[in-house]
């Protein structure tokens, strides 16, 4: 069977079987990479497209609540923050989490200091790039507004940005910025701070500890009971292993640690493989492509037939020389990045 998959940092797979969150996590880890992680609004829009017409109420994603929270910025762009960026400007005695329910951060106009407050309180707010919105909303509503009309709620990385934000505001005691505290964690250990909660969510109680996409609510998220049975979204990643192994060693490594050696059964996946292979430390990178001498054809270890191919001239012939070892397929790490036939005992980097 020949398949086509979309090209991107994640490939999302909708699974219509109904499972609990933990069962869904196990299924995704066995079959793909993990339950879906969503890194930004673009990925969320793609996921929503994938869910159109699927019906039902909720679909599991890979977010669940742990025991310890951490401060993070609403804009989930790792390249935007320098390593060790730790600028903070708390008002005296803050954050104090008064009442155990203060998870969102407001900034005082008079001196730029921060304090934690209940996320459901309504305040004015500042979006990127230093755009003051003189309209009072809850923190989640402010976040949604900024994402729809600008980029996101404002981050404050240094004193200069703090002053620019203060300069943008008009006669306001305090206003929301993009800092929040939560204890929600992604199943694949991603550090993504992207969240897309419904404005009344999460409940953050001890009963509802798993996140699901609300199919009927523009794809916004709700926290629900983990034991509920719902369809789910897995994601798949291509992982370059910069370790030199024989083809059989690479196959064993991928199957023990991930899913399988990569199968390139469409042009979209070839584009994805080309991006990943460029970072290899060897000139060629193993694929899940193998030749059988007894039957005289090439096949993918995942079970796909070779419908799409990208062989370099002189490679991929049906009548491969089978002595002294079986031939296996690799992709050129650079240049034209075509496929080549190599003896299986060569040692190369590989893609799972």
TrEMBL record:
<dbReference type="Pfam" id="PF00059">
    <property type="entry name" value="Lectin_C"/>
</dbReference>
<dbReference type="InterPro" id="IPR016186">
    <property type="entry name" value="C-type_lectin-like/link_sf"/>
</dbReference>
<dbReference type="InterPro" id="IPR001304">
    <property type="entry name" value="C-type_lectin-like"/>
</dbReference>
<feature type="domain" description="C-type lectin">
    <location>
        <begin position="7"/>
        <end position="128"/>
    </location>
</feature>
<feature type="domain" description="C-type lectin">
    <location>
        <begin position="242"/>
        <end position="352"/>
    </location>
</feature>
<dbReference type="InterPro" id="IPR016187">
    <property type="entry name" value="CTDL_fold"/>
</dbReference>
<keyword id="KW-1015">Disulfide bond</keyword>
<dbReference type="InterPro" id="IPR018378">
    <property type="entry name" value="C-type_lectin_CS"/>
</dbReference>
<protein>
    <recommendedName>
        <fullName>C-type lectin domain-containing protein</fullName>
    </recommendedName>
</protein>
<feature type="domain" description="C-type lectin">
    <location>
        <begin position="130"/>
        <end position="235"/>
    </location>
</feature>
